[in-house]
């Protein structure tokens, strides 16, 4: 939805096409499925017809290049804002499909992909800052973890998987609620890079808060059998050329809590909510 | 899209749920397929959350009652208008699937369902007229011709099929363009009822124009082998309890033309267009 999820002032039609496709591919990746078909619905206001034409052209090209068949959709008029709705159909081996309701106590919580980069990109775009290119790309053109998702789905060690679209905290809370378990995040393990810390500071943001609540990263969130973690994490790094990030563990209970230097820690955060409800942790 | 395809002032949430489902079922019916799965995406502005909740509740109930499985979708915030996007997945016997590109010269053009009723319903709703209930229902709660579509798809006599969503003229023109043929509409065959004529007159409308250009009827448009038409039409009427309407024929050429009392006739009409382009016939 224009002016909620994107603004045409900083989203060129190519970036928007990329994002519209990949945020949906991310959901397919999260179940370990291979995307096959896509349907795209778009409503276009009069004033944006040229922009929308370019968007559609790029979207169709991108589907073809990704090997996904664009099999249908709908183009209609809208009053004053662009609306885009994408449906992707994928296939997976029934036994390999990963759900969000199957995490077990003692499982290790791991994250695939960077945390908080997209949020810095959003801030940089909204403030029209010419720097911070490193973060703008993950925000404007996130890349779904399709290959990682398919590989992770085939690993028995992965007990539970979902994508991170609304921010780590919100999505981990969903995973824990669905699994009837509690998530413990070890703040030391978040371990932001020095550059990321500095960039957050320049923008007046707390880097831990950004990593915990920044949305739209489109990474993957997994729960992993603690006994199989070691060789499994090594394999992942070898195959994909970057490490998974261990950030905590699952235990009995409900909700999310934090530890820091081995001590429980309270944190007041305002994570993303589609409808602006405020939640404290 | 709110304020383009519907207004909440005259669409109660139940009617809107009905329409959102059936306008999509109509596309599935047009190919002769049996609907199996549905995905619903909705963007909701803050002010409309109660309305949207009721819509979603009704939509889910309706899917269940229709025997279609609601398998997914997305709920997000919007700025100031409701947007709904529905995807339905159906199955059909490969050989029975009907397309819009296969009409042949000499084929008879037939219509299933009333023409122009939904348009009168729209006018009555927009003008807040308490009468015209007969037309409001087809506008507010159109019923997809699912059973008819499945039956017609199994008939070899039917060479071509699509649904009528943008009005007879616009949709017949699409069918003819796709089939590289010309459509001839016999105005006498439109044969509006006396009541319909009178109601059009009360609303200051030309009844023939309404039948030709009024949108959102969600009937079916077929091309039928002339030699098989007779017994086929009898079977249809017997099974469904109402007749198909013969309205013209396919010939060589392109575009649409009209005959009246055996004479060619020019007509100036402004059919529906999603983006307001004006077309004359």
From TrEMBL, chains A, B:
Species lineage: Bacteria, Pseudomonadati, Pseudomonadota, Alphaproteobacteria, Rickettsiales
Organism domain of life: Bacteria
Name of the protein in its database record: Thiamine-monophosphate kinase
UniProt entry tagged with the keyword Cell division: no
Keyword tags: Kinase, Thiamine biosynthesis, Transferase
One Pfam family here: AIRS_C
Domain PurM-like C-terminal: 148-254
SUPFAM superfamilies according to UniProt: PurM C-terminal domain-like, PurM N-terminal domain-like
GO MF term list: kinase activity
Residue ranges of every copy of the PurM-like N-terminal domain listed in the record: 3-92
Species: Candidatus Bandiella euplotis
InterPro entries registered for this protein in UniProt: PurM-like_C_dom, PurM-like_C_sf, PurM-like_N, PurM-like_N_sf, ThiL-like
